[in-house]
From TrEMBL:
Domain Cupin type-2: 43-114
Protein name from the UniProt record: Cupin domain-containing protein
One Pfam family this sequence matches: Cupin_2
Residue spans crossing the bilayer: none
Species, as recorded: Shewanella psychropiezotolerans
Length: 154
């Protein structure tokens, strides 16, 4: 049996994440640093005016958010909710409840993201009609199609 090590969260390096001016943050993958295999634990810093991600939900993964410092706006299916130090919420898998965090304050917002890791998860982004299929680690446009439309065999 392997015993995971105790880590000092302060010793885990911040990694920058950016996909546009709007979607940018810094993250510490503390679960990975501690040797977690089935649960992801990430500390995230969100600067004023930034969004944590495109609003999304998971089909197989449960996602937990816990506010450590500051305050932000938690958008749940587009509806704003205050989310500040000490607040916690869990988004159960396959509930089709899209969520994201937006920092409307003038100070940094720090929070934890915790969730199970499931290679069969599909992340749905309803605002831009896309899906991330974890099994192949690719994003696709979400649009219905007939199975036989792509059949080229005669």
């Amino acid at each position: 049996m392997t015993i995971n090590k105790i880590i000092k969260v302060d010793d885990v390096c911040w990694e920058s994440w950016q996909h546009s001016e709007q979607y940018t943050s810094q993250q510490k993958h503390i679960g990975d640093a501690a040797g977690c295999e089935k649960i992801g634990v990430t500390m995230e810093r969100l600067a004023p005016g930034k969004l944590s991600t495109v609003a999304h939900y998971h089909t197989k993964e449960e996602e937990h958010l816990y506010a450590l410092e500051g305050e932000a706006t938690l958008l749940i299916d587009g509806e704003p909710h205050p989310f500040k130090k000490g607040d916690y919420i869990c988004f159960n898998a396959d509930t089709a409840i899209a969520h994201t965090l937006r920092n409307d304050s003038d100070k940094e917002f720090v929070f934890l993201v915790i969730g199970n890791r499931d290679k069969h998860d599909v992340v749905v982004y309803p605002e831009n009609n896309k899906v991330l299929v974890r099994a192949v680690d690719e994003i696709y446009a979400k649009r219905p199609t007939n199975y036989w439309d792509a059949d080229t065999q005669e």
